[in-house]
Amino acid sequence: MESRIQMPLLVVLLFALVSGGLSLTFTFKNNCSYTVWPGTLAGSDSAQLSSTGFELASGASNSINASSGWSGRFWGRTYCSSSTGSFKCETADCGSGQVACNGAGAVPPATLAEFAVASNNAEQEYYDVSLVDGFNLPLSVTPQGGTGPCSSVGCLANINSVCPAELSVKGSNGSTIACKTACDAFGTDEYCCTGAYNTPQTCPQTNYSKIFKDQCPQTYSSPYDDQASTYICTGANYLITFCP
Ligand SMILES: *[C@@H]1O[C@H](CO)[C@@H](O)[C@H](O)[C@H]1NC(C)=O
Ligand SMILES: *[C@@H]1O[C@H](CO)[C@@H](O)[C@H](O)[C@H]1NC(C)=O
Ligand SMILES: *[C@@H]1O[C@H](CO)[C@@H](O)[C@H](O)[C@H]1NC(C)=O
Questions:
Q1: Of 25, 20, 68, 70, which Cα lies nearest the Cα of 45?
Q2: Residue 92 φ/ψ region, left for φ over 0, alpha for ψ in the -120 to 50 degree band, beta for the rest
Q3: Which of 131, 135, 181, 204 lies 20 to 30 A from 157 at CA?
Q4: Nearest C-alpha to atom 6 of ligand 2 is from which residue?
Q5: Does residue 16 sit in helix, strand or coil?
Q6: Domain definitions of the chain by residue range
Q7: Residues at CB less than 6 angstroms from ligand 1
Q8: Does any ligand 2 atom lie closer than 6 A to the CB of residue 207?
């Protein structure tokens, strides 16, 4: 009698371990002095998380669970309001007209936290902080638990304060609230790594991408940035801090 009950339980447990049917938790902490509205977007092979956008007051935290193997990105929207009738943000807006992004990504500039899973090992999480779409606020990713290198990675500097005028996005408050990439500002092959510049050899760092990389050395700051910008951990939960 007992063994007939325990046997299926054991099978379920083993299946959960082998298939990676475990979940991981992403915790968002707003350490900025202002409200941030995080956005979440799943990669093409993953389901959207239970929340695709929410409000996070200064000092507040919120957690979202994901199934192991989820891939996608996070960002923080700033200077948002519904004063025009629909919800809109001055930086990193997703264009949904709502707090939820519903499968839409951030309009650049936006600091991005990216997560991916190795196709040959469903348990291993790859993560990075990317400035390839520009910068809007400081952000860090810190693994909690897990095995492997599991380093914290972030862009801690406020690049808005050193953003050249030609890349600057001014808010309705008159100050620089985001910093565009040179690709977004000028649209040339040289800055976008397109055309004759579409290989790592022909698209070196530019004086503009150097500003981002110098301020935040751990991040991806150009399309062909070195692999040292990607971080690895196995079986962790993750803390995403705005203004760490
Ligand atoms: C998220 O996962 C944690 C750990 O497994 C669990 O304690 C918590 O209840 C889950 N939260 C939700 C909203 O499912
Ligand atoms: C970057 O280089 C371009 C082209 O040489 C120049 O026009 C621009 O002023 C430089 N900008 C900065 C911030 O150094
Ligand atoms: C929050 O920001 C303050 C500076 O504004 C910093 O001293 C502190 O270490 C940060 N806390 C966390 C948890 O990142």
A1: 70
A2: left
A3: 204
A4: 207
A5: helix
A6: 9-158+217-242
A7: 23, 25, 65
A8: yes
Instruction: Supply the pTM of this predicted model.
Output: 0.88
- Tens digits of pLDDT across the chain (244 residues): 333 434 343 333 334 344 445 689 999 999 999 999 999 999 988 999 999 999 999 999 999 999 888 999 999 999 999 988 999 999 999 999 999 999 999 999 999 999 987 655 557 899 999 999 999 999 999 999 999 999 999 999 999 999 999 999 999 999 999 999 999 999 999 999 999 999 988 998 899 999 999 999 999 887 777 666 789 999 899 999 999 9
Tell me which residue has its CA closest to atom 11 in ligand 1: 65
Residues pairing with 36 in the sheet:
56
Atom of ligand 1 nearest to the CA of 50: 13
- The matching CATH number, chosen from 2.60.120.10, 2.60.110.10, 2.40.160.30, 2.40.50.100, for 9-158+217-242 is 2.60.110.10
Provide the token pair at 182.
């040179």
